[in-house]
Amino acid sequence: VVGDGGVVYRRNSTLFNWTRMDPAVRAKKLDVYVDGNAWIVGTDGFVYQLSNDRWFRKGTFKARDIGISEGSDNIWALSESDGSLYFYEGNQVWSKQSDQTGNHISVSDDNRIWVVDGGRRILFSECATPRGGVIVDCETLSSEDFESGFGIWNDGGGDVDRLNNGDGNGSGSNSIRLRDNSGAASSLFSDVLDLGSFNEVKVSFTYRADGMEAGEDFFLEVSTNGGSSYTIIEEWNSGVEFQNLVRENERVTIPSANLSDNTRIRFRCDASGNLDVIVIDDIVIETCGRRLQGPNDPIELALIEYSEPNDFRATPTQDQQAELSYHYNSQDGKAVKQVAFQWVHMDGEDFENIAVISPESVESDQQFYFVHSTPEIGKNYYQVVTEYEDGTVEISDFRFVDIVAEIESGIRLFPNPAQDVLKIDMSEYMGKEIHYFISTSQGEVMKHGNFDLNHTEEVDVNLSELNNGNYFIYMRPEGSKEVVEQFVILKK
């Protein structure tokens, strides 16, 4: 660590004490290999390496910050004079790698470079290879938004649809819906592609799931024999890699071992019914080759673009309302015409406006608030639609508020814990039709049904398909307030 006055201390992992390093050199920046090999930027600006408890200067180059890549043993630094990127060649020689500048640097184990510049923006290099090393060049082979049709993609069967619903899943209003688990009939596959000469292929896309239960998933698969057989390259699982109704962006690399001159790429849904869907859009295929980096190939640091530069929050209140707050902070000075808070219940289909607010000024940094006083029991989903004066529109990702009904007495569940059957005493609601649904403690609906007008005083609910855990049963008797009870499934 760097202590007071720039003095460097090293901790002994056995004795747990701190040793003061060569006090003649003081540090303002420090990075250390996992084996304890320390490098610093001294208060004089020079770069030093620790050896035998002494600091040795590495040439006449002066730096602002330094970063070490554990995976490649590479040393990177930002120059003191202008912040441009340099690489340590060895023998006290530093070589300039980029004209782009920064104030702070960090390098990952796989040699990816992250830089914070003077505007506090984050820049990133996907190919942080020093000149003379191997770099990857990629070109776009196909970019499909499905506005004019399927392009190079093909409908696998009855569980694939091209939607035109303007749901904001990706660019434009068209997208591809995959559902159920009907094998090829639940898949979207490419034409045969000649990819055998490339070192790798990158596939980017955006998607949104709806109705996908825990354990249900979808795949990206590749065939090297024109579609006779497929290999899974990547898998996305509900509740792990994605949540329902939340848009995700993915980029997958397919290695050369899975490429041929007879390649097909396929997306396949692996759900359990027609209401379990994955909506995919904006599929981009890039073909990539490797080559030696030459003297005219500077490292490019790309600006990290945030998908949601503005802060949107939805918070439940103690009186079962939803408090919505939206902090608009324009990155490019665009003026807002109006902001719309939109809502849909977990049982609904389409978002509806619950508040439309016009700003009081054209300032680029503003706060918008609204309290939704009538959310329904269960998950309530919200989004913000920002309309700008130039006519463009921006839709936020979803937030949700889970409203839990007050638990009332009057209905008895037994046995509790239950195994395969839950019995319910419904004597207080004789002659009333009752709708019910069972959800996990996280709000995921696992089962639903109805008790008709002629139900008995004691009714049975089959739990054989549910796993052990804590559950809530929500019952809505006709003409009465909703009742919620908690129970446990504990199977032997």
Can you characterise this structure?
The protein is mainly β and 492 residues long. The protein is 0% helix and 53% strand. The chain is built from no helices and 39 strands. The strands form nine sheets. It has a seven-stranded antiparallel β-sheet with strand order 3-4-5-6-7-8-9, with no helix packed on it. Strands 13, 15, 16, 18, 21 and 23 form a six-stranded antiparallel β-sheet that branches. A five-stranded antiparallel β-sheet has the order 14-17-22-19-20, with no helix packed on it. The two termini are 54 Å apart. The model has no long low-confidence stretch (mean pLDDT 83).
In terms of structural class, how would the helical and strand content be classed? mainly beta
Annotation field: number of helices: 0
Rg from C-alpha positions?
29 Å
What kind of sheet is the major sheet? 7 strands, antiparallel
Helix share, percent: under 10%
How far from one another are the termini?
Answer: 54 Å
The main sheet orders its strands as 3-4-5-6-7-8-9
Query: Looking at the structure, what is the overall shape?
Result: globular
Number of strands: 39
> What are the low-pLDDT stretches, counting only 5+ consecutive residues below 50?
none
Mean of all residue-level pLDDT scores: 83
β-sheet strand percentage = over 45%
Q: What can be said about this structure in brief?
A:
This protein has strands at residues 9-11, 18-20, 27-32, 38-42, 46-51, 54-69, 74-79, 84-90, 93-101, 104-107, 113-116, 122-125, 134-144, 153-155, 160-164, 174-179, 187-190, 200-210, 217-223, 231-237, 248-255, 264-270, 277-292, 302-303, 311-316, 322-329, 336-345, 352-357, 365-372, 378-388, 393-395, 399-403, 412-414, 421-425, 434-440, 445-451, 458-462, 469-477, 483-489. By secondary structure, the protein is mainly β.
